[in-house]
């Protein structure tokens, strides 16, 4: 998936300004350090540009689609302009709809709710739970984890060819893994789906912040993503794509805004005419600030240019992979192999360490924020760690015996991993500090004692 179109694109850019870049946090041994936010895959910090845009609009906040006053009209125009901005950012087709939701999870649950009766869904076990679980009440085929992109395409093609009877079908696939960061062969999977008359929805939560996502170019039918991973604040998301299933289904939520006309019948019941536009699935007062924040992030990324952003991020990916490769006790997790293209998302385990303890030490002793656990992708992490699909165990720190402090160095590993993730706002220094901290912890162990509290490893301040 190349995004480099010219020599100018290949110039490495500076990190984009984000909120929190100068925040100082305390260290357990005393003193403070600038926080290294390396958990972008969970929630990327908001771009300063986005925050400034939201702050400039906030005094003009008004009711959307319902008010006659100036602020209401202004807010309505801004909300609908934001919808157009997102459509342009995604390369939507002329008749596609853009629905504002709360998150990727909400978007995919919305799509699950509007599927035509009898639709069969195909989803790889490697998906994030947002993509794996919304279809569980329907006719779902869960596909085993492929070990190469080619195997992914072939597995899907066989599964679609074997389906009977032939009716509506939907394929759900990620664009970039939230565990390994590896890019999936979206165009090829879309071609395999369409060859068998199926539609495909792209979970772009981890792809859209790192690469351009073009619905028409990728030939996908739907795209879902979250604002909080695209450098916008929490609480907003998008489902974009073909209008017919959205238009023909009952509203996701029933209420004002989704209804066009409501009247009492003579028998006392209520007759409702629903909107056929995106408003059909946006009942209630919409999150106009959330929609505007997503649109602002779309504009900011477009203006910065994905070409230089990708070049810089790949420099960071190479630096992290090279640094971790130099530590024999570290194993980087991969589905498609060490050389598979990936975004700035890398998961690993450390020999002799419980991942929760390691992540706690990075935070408490070095001021570095990463993620540990199963990353809301339990089947995938179990596969990557070589455990059985039904193996006992869970993420987090193992419980210690009464009166015993769990020691992270040499402790009992649990079924979890560590994830470091970064993006357009990550300074080089954060990556360098992370690699230095990993090497030091592996070599010397933690300098502090830790205990388990509610399944989390925390410094013991006893």
From TrEMBL:
GO MF: transaminase activity
Gene3D superfamilies found in the cross-reference section: Aspartate Aminotransferase, domain 1, Type I PLP-dependent aspartate aminotransferase-like (Major domain)
Aminotransferase class V domain mapped to chain residues: 38-434
PROSITE patterns tied to this protein: AA_TRANSFER_CLASS_5
Record carries keyword Nucleotidyltransferase: no
Cofactor(s) for this UniProt protein: pyridoxal 5'-phosphate
Catalysed reaction, written as an equation: (sulfur carrier)-H + L-cysteine = (sulfur carrier)-SH + L-alanine
Superkingdom, natural source: Bacteria
Keywords, comma-separated and alphabetical: Aminotransferase, Pyridoxal phosphate, Transferase
InterPro entries assigned to the protein according to its UniProt record, in alphabetical order: Aminotrans_V_dom, Aminotrans_V_PyrdxlP_BS, PyrdxlP-dep_Trfase, PyrdxlP-dep_Trfase_major, PyrdxlP-dep_Trfase_small
Record-stated family: Belongs to the class-V pyridoxal-phosphate-dependent aminotransferase family. Csd subfamily.
Name of this chain's protein: Aminotransferase class V-fold PLP-dependent enzyme
Organism whose genome encodes this protein: Streptantibioticus ferralitis
